[in-house]
């Protein structure tokens, strides 16, 4: 198994072989630089990362339509600011996975620590296990689908995008939320300031159906979810809402 | 601001490797705390025996002949093991308090790191790897242990400012975060008769728990009450003779990961610290909930 | 005989002065704390309380115009592959698009570029106006992450992770709905016309141990090319500087309490944080204790107005200074030519601080399309460039008079203090004495 091959492989028979980076042998810098050197239309569309062992900033800042498979658990900020790429983590992820993601998809086979998808602007983040606290904090357009539960303060100050939780949500869901949509199938421990349950209209069922399909979670039915969003009472300051600030 | 590791063994066959496993975990979190490091190891001691760990800035001078002098002073046999700047004294458990007082008199420059039936504490300034090497932590066996790497925030980078802090028999505490009301709490505890070695916020948390335990609470109750009395950001890991506990503040920003298998319970500020543990791929890995006390006991 | 009580002069309370009483009436009428911009207005010990000693017989001055006095400053030489080199030790501080109008941002870029220095984005993303017109642009990475994206991160010349600002260490912000225009709303992914609350903490890290990991991520995304600044408000400057360095910063930006802001509670602006003068020596001490002085650069801001302030900050150990409020004044903010309009707003030129309301007659702190036309970016940019050049010349003049061939060679020993307070805060002796309060057992 090749460890590092920074030179482009010209031979046609190796054109489609995955490029493999074993982080036990190759520094992180080499992996990320190689990922940044890929341009759109390159044949190097398959990448594998071995032995991440909880290290940080794995596969960050990619800007090309490639597939990256990370085998093992990673630390903070895996796939941070991702654009176009599909990054799959065959393990669990530390804080801030796919933070500020722009587009593409990040799939986590295990659990996610806090701040999953923080400030994400686009793309799809799928967490097949549970997500910890502050999932989707300050999200700005990203779609997040979590098969398990999400922890406290999830979708805090969420501005835009959709958070779909097949399990339960922890305390203070959607505190100070703006226009993001929250769909929860299980229980919600408590709603945060200015977050309320809202009517599930046909357009929301459509959005949810599409997201569940794209996340490969078609065993859940859109009708089983409740929708939460902003009561918009904090949109313009009013002293009688001071307790909520 | 720091890195914490903890390991509580269920499988006795792992006990000879406790020091090796714990020091590797600690070194993996060097980035979180390059200023100093410390480790508390709980090992078995013979029935009725106790241990006292002391540290000296001048170990050659202070440790020479100290076992004999101490033995004479307390009227009981004393065995001494010197490791770099630290020395561990083994003696009858009922003589520990007398020995602590005797050391203050015999060696005023020496500091008691901890005492009890099982606890040994080693801590120094410097990179975690160097600290682990100088005390030969990897050769130690034990039932459970806690390690800490420190990035000092507001108090000095000194040996005494390193974690773990031990303020009661067989008790120790390490901390990641920053307390915001520790000065007031320290003043209150001083009035109640507690003494402090440093200006460190973590020492206040340790003393707070010891004070509550001395007042009749068990560790779980003491940790519960810390949630309302201590303000700021914290993940605490505490050790006792038989077990270890974990608690995070209600906001729970400072990271914490736990793993449990049939053989051990492990704690790490980051998953990195756990990544090389045996069977980690099959372990139950989770994050402790905010304001929730977790406790394992043998 | 009747007792005659002679009239006494009406006496106002020093505690309940006119301003205080008006503020109580305002709070009672509106039920909201006062939000405003412009930084602390109370009098605090400042650079005015320091004097340079100059040279005479014991030291030799340099000739102006002939003997060189360098002002160049390199920022980010610690880790970045592409450090920034500025011609002058004065940069333009972060002020957001949203808070400022497009033409005002463009003018800042133009002025800074002519003068050979950098300008900085703000809480609201990078605009084409400022990227296009700024030769060197620092991209702020803030808790809100408005407009944050990897493309702009890579287009920036340096990245400034903002932990806090001098006007409000520990606080977030509030941009009132009036300023959330279509364009601002789009850049911030917010509905138009609502109040925008800025978070006080970053959403995905807390503390120096996590900051180290955040810096690693940004360096990896930008291939270790860009200098990473860390900006803190003047809270606990010794510790905050030391921790920023430990976390891996290339540059520390330290903003004292006089630092301006667009929208914060007045109670916060006036009552939280330390004066700029008091912040510099502890920060420099932290750098020196770590062996990092001049290796990790220190930029100081908050109330810098002229070349003397620049020279004094550098003498106390800063590598550069940053200006915000002063730059806006150079562009034309609070100009008496708009006096009649200021009066309509219930204020006067020179005192206008409702920068968050979007009604700025000078067209600078507004998103009103008509008002912002009043800023001619070319002319305003030229004024800023002139002002930056004057400040640089002034600082050079002082440095030469102290016998220095580089402004960085100014030292605390070139200064004396006029007041005991300033002597204690800046660690220089009271004029005419060798007394530094707090030093040598005094």
Automatic annotation (TrEMBL), chain A:
InterPro entries cross-referenced by the UniProt entry? Glu_synth_asu_C_sf, Glu_synth_lsu_3
Q: Which GO terms describe its molecular function?
A: oxidoreductase activity
The cross-references to CDD domains, in alphabetical order and at most eight, read: GXGXG
Q: Which domain of life is it from?
A: Bacteria
Q: Which SUPFAM superfamilies does the protein's record reference?
A: Alpha subunit of glutamate synthase, C-terminal domain (SSF69336)
The protein, known as: Protein GlxC
Organism listed in the record: Pseudaminobacter soli (ex Li et al. 2025)
High-level lineage: Bacteria, Pseudomonadati, Pseudomonadota, Alphaproteobacteria, Hyphomicrobiales
Automatic annotation (TrEMBL), chain B:
Q: Where is the Glutamine amidotransferase type-2 domain?
A: 2-298
Q: State the CDD domains in the record.
A: GlxB
Domain of life of the source: Bacteria
Keywords, ordered alphabetically: Glutamine amidotransferase, Transferase
Give GO terms: molecular function aspect only: transferase activity
InterPro entries on file: GATase_2_dom, Ntn_hydrolases_N
Q: What is this protein called?
A: Glutamine amidotransferase
From TrEMBL, chain C:
Query: What residues form the membrane-spanning segments?
Result: none
Q: Could you tell me which InterPro entries the record lists for this protein? A: Aldolase_TIM (IPR013785), GltB (IPR024188), GltB_archl_type (IPR043578), Glu_synthdom (IPR002932)
Q: Which GO terms describe its biological process?
A: glutamate biosynthetic process
User: What GO MF terms are annotated?
Assistant: glutamate synthase activity
- Disordered, as annotated region: 114-133
Q: Which residues form the Glutamate synthase domain?
A: 76-332, 356-404
Parts forming coiled coils: none
Keywords assigned: Oxidoreductase
Residue span of the signal peptide, if any? none
Which protein family is named in the record? Belongs to the glutamate synthase family.
Q: What protein does this entry describe?
A: FMN-binding glutamate synthase family protein
Please give the organism: Pseudaminobacter soli (ex Li et al. 2025)
């Amino acid at each position: 198994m090749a460890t590092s091959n920074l030179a482009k492989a010209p031979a046609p028979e190796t054109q489609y072989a995955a490029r493999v980076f074993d982080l036990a042998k190759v520094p992180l810098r080499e992996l990320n630089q190689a990922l940044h050197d890929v341009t759109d239309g390159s044949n190097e569309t398959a990448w594998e990362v071995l032995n991440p062992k909880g290290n940080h900033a794995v596969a960050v800042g990619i800007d090309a339509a490639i597939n990256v498979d990370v085998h093992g658990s990673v630390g903070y900020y895996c796939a941070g600011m991702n654009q176009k790429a599909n990054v799959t983590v065959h393990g669990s992820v530390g804080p801030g996975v796919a933070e500020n993601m722009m587009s593409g998809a990040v799939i986590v086979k295990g659990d996610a620590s806090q701040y999953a998808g923080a400030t994400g602007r686009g793309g799809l983040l799928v967490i097949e296990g549970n997500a910890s606290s502050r999932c989707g904090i300050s999200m700005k357009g990203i779609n997040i689908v979590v098969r398990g539960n999400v922890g406290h303060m999830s979708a805090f100050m969420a501005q835009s995008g959709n958070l779909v939780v097949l399990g339960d949500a922890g305390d203070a869901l959607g505190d100070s939320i703006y226009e993001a949509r929250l769909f929860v199938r299980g229980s919600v421990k408590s709603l945060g300031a200015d977050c309320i349950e809202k009517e599930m209209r046909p357009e929301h069922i459509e959005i949810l159906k599409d997201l569940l399909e794209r996340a490969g979670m078609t065993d859940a039915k859109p009708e089983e979810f409740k929708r939460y969003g902003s009561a918009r009472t904090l949109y313009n300051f009013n002293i009688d809402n001071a307790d909520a600030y | 601001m720091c890195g914490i590791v903890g390991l509580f063994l269920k499988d006795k066959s792992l006990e000879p490797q406790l020091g090796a496993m714990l020091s590797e975990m600690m070194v993996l979190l060097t980035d979180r705390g390059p200023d100093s490091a410390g480790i508390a190891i709980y090992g078995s001691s013979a029935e009725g025996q106790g241990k006292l760990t002391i540290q000296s800035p001048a170990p050659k001078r202070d440790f020479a002949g100290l076992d004999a002098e101490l033995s004479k002073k307390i009227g009981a046999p004393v065995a001494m093991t010197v490791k770099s700047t630290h020395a561990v004294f083994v003696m009858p458990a009922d003589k520990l308090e007398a020995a602590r007082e005797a050391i203050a008199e015999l060696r005023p420059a020496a500091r008691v790191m901890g005492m009890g039936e099982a606890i040994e504490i080693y801590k120094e300034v410097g990179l975690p790897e160097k600290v682990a090497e100088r005390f030969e932590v990897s050769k130690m066996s034990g039932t459970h242990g806690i390690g800490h790497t420190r990035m000092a925030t507001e108090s000095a980078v000194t040996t005494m400012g390193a974690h773990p802090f031990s303020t009661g028999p067989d008790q120790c505490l390490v901390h990641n975060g920053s307390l915001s009301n520790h000065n007031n709490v320290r003043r209150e505890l001083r009035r109640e008769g507690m003494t402090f070695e440093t200006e460190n916020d973590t020492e206040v948390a340790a003393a707070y728990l010891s004070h509550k335990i001395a007042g009749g609470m068990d560790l779980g109750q003491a940790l519960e009450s810390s949630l309302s009395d201590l303000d700021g950001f914290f993940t605490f890991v505490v050790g006792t003779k038989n077990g270890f506990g974990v608690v995070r503040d209600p906001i729970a920003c400072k990271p914490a990961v736990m793993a449990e298998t049939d053989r051990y319970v492990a704690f790490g500020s980051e998953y990195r610290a756990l990544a090389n543990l045996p069977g980690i791929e099959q372990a139950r890995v989770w994050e402790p909930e905010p304001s929730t006390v977790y406790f394992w006991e043998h | 005989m009747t007792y005659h009580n002679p009239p006494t002069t009406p006496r106002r309370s020093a505690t309940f002065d006119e301003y205080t009483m008006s503020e109580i009436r305002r709070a009672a009428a509106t039920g909201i704390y006062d939000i405003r911009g412009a930084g602390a207005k109370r009098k605090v010990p400042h650079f005015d309380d320091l004097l340079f000693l100059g040279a005479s017989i014991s030291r030799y001055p340099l000739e102006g115009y002939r003997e060189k006095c360098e002002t160049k400053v390199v920022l980010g030489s610690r880790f970045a592959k592409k450090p920034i080199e500025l011609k002058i030790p004065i940069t333009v501080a972060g002020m957001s698009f949203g808070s400022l109008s497009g033409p005002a941002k463009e003018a800042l870029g133009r002025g800074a570029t002519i003068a050979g220095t950098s300008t900085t984005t703000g809480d609201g993303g990078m605009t084409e106006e400022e990227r296009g017109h700024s030769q060197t642009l620092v991209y702020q990475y803030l808790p809100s992450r408005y407009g944050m994206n990897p493309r702009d991160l890579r287009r920036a010349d340096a990245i400034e992770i903002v932990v806090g600002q001098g006007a409000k260490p520990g606080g977030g912000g509030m941009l009132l709905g009036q300023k959330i225009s279509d364009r601002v709303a789009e850049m911030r992914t917010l509905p138009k016309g609502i109040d925008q609350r800025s978070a006080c903490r970053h959403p995905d890290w807390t503390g120096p141990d996590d900051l180290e990991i955040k810096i690693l991520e940004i360096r990896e995304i930008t291939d270790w090319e860009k200098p990473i600044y860390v900006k803190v408000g003047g809270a606990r400057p010794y510790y905050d500087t030391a921790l920023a360095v430990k976390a891996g910063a290339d540059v520390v930006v330290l903003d004292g309490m006089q630092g301006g802001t667009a929208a914060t509670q007045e109670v916060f602006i006036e009552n939280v944080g330390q004066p700029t003068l008091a912040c510099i020596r502890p920060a420099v001490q932290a750098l020196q204790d770590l062996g990092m002085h001049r290796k990790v650069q220190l930029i100081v801001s908050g109330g810098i107005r002229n070349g003397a302030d620049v020279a004094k900050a550098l003498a106390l150990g800063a590598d550069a200074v940053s200006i915000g409020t002063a730059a806006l004044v150079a562009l034309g903010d609070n100009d008496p030519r708009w006096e009649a309009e200021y009066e309509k707003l219930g204020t006067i030129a020179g005192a206008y601080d409702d920068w968050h309301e979007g009604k700025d007659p000078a067209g600078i702190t507004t998103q009103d399309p008509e008002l912002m036309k009043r800023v001619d970016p070319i002319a305003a940019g030229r004024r800023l460039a002139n002002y930056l050049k004057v400040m640089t010349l002034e600082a050079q003049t002082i440095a030469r008079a102290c016998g220095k061939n580089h402004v960085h060679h100014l030292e605390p020993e070139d200064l004396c203090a006029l007041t005991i307070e300033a002597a204690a805060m800046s660690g220089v002796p009271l004029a005419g004495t060798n007394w530094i309060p707090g030093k040598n057992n005094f």
